[in-house]
Write a structure and sequence with these properties.
The chain is mainly alpha-helical and about 100 residues long. It has five helices and three strands; from the N terminus they run αβαβαβαα. It has helices spanning about 1-5, 15-25, 35-45, 60-75, 75-100, and strands at about 10, 30, 50. The protein has a three-stranded parallel sheet with strand order 1-2-3. Helix 2 (about 15-25) links the parallel strand 1 (about 10) and strand 2 (about 30). The longest helix has 24 residues, at about 75-100.
Length: about 100
Amino acid sequence: RYVLSQAKVMIGFRLHSNIIATSNYTPSLNYYYVDKGRAYFDQIKQSQNCFPIEALLEKDFMVTFQENFSRLYANSSQTRLDLEREITALRKALISAMSDL
């Protein structure tokens, strides 16, 4: 968690690596192979940073990847704030749901 929390940007192909990074408010690009990855990034309002793994097979992948990475890196400070807001809201909702049991 510490290493990922210090990263400027994280690129993940596995859901749990992205959860660890984003739970530390690290801006992340997610290449998902099952819809759980997409659903998680939708939930934390980061769907603009989430792509199907098949994107790696596209002819213009490197150009698109570089554009997405550059955009995320340039906006990393705001993305960290956005992640903090959304992750905090999810944590509060989970605590509330668990206390209702």
